[in-house]
């Protein structure tokens, strides 16, 4: 909810994420209640490797010298994917995620990728509303299957 007298849009800066941002980014995910796999694809080592592959689409939003939002944009050469988008609760509904998404989409499009998807848990109404508002359509009936090599990832 927007606070009284608070400007609707937060004046934040979107910039590429760096390996040294790892701990602050994890704090944003934790504050946002996103599940987090420290032993798997969200480990510090995995994050650093991914950063080297996606230096222009792993982005953070900064305000007052602190990271307040994050987005991890990837692609598999066919489609782009939005992963781990989160904004700290106290700065929501001030267009931070909108700015992160616009920058991330531009970076993915610049790689020649024209379709971008996002996997959203069915009960995540905030995220569904955000993606609908951002032009994404839930028009592919799909079930998400996965096979994990280990239980802790
Ligand atoms: C989803 C999330 C990233 C949105 O971040 P945000 O910075 O608040 O989003 P924005 O301010 O850019 O929202 C843009 C528009 O999306 C829609 N929207 C965003 N959050 C919404 C909500 N909770 N309810 C309804 N509409 C919403 C609105 O139309 C909003 O515009 P408005 O504020 O002018 O009405 C944030 O709620 C969050 O971090 N959630 C927890 C983590 C999460 O679930 N991530 C998604 C994983 S797929």
Summarize the structure.
The protein has helices at about 20-30, 45-55, 95-110, 125-135; strands at about 15, 60-65, 65-75, 80-85, 115-120. With about 150 residues, it is of the alpha+beta class.
Give a verbal description of the structure:
- With 153 residues, the protein is of the alpha+beta class.
- It has a single domain, classed as Aminopeptidase.
- Helix content is 28%, strand content 20%.
- The chain has four helices and five strands.
- A five-stranded mixed β-sheet has the order 1-2-3-4-5, with helices on both faces.
- Strand 3 and strand 4 form a beta hairpin.
- The longest helix has 14 residues.
- It is globular and about 45 Å long.
- The N and C termini lie far apart (34 Å).
- The structure holds coenzyme A (COA).
How are the secondary structure elements laid out?
Layout lengths: L12 E4 L5 H10 L12 H10 L4 E6 L2 E10 L4 E8 L8 H14 L6 E3 L6 H9 L20
The chain binds coenzyme A.
Number of strands: 5
Ligand species: coenzyme A
| CATH fold call | Aminopeptidase
Q: How much of the sequence is in beta strands?
A: 15-25%
Structural class determined from secondary elements = alpha+beta
Number of helices: 4
**What is the general shape?**
globular
Which strand order do you get reading across the main beta sheet? Answer: 1-2-3-4-5
Please outline the major beta sheet: 5 strands, mixed
Mind telling me the C-alpha Rg? 15 Å
Order of helices and strands: EHHEEEHEH
Termini, distance in Å?
Answer: 34 Å
CATH superfamily: Gcn5-related N-acetyltransferase (GNAT)
Highest CATH level, the class? Alpha Beta
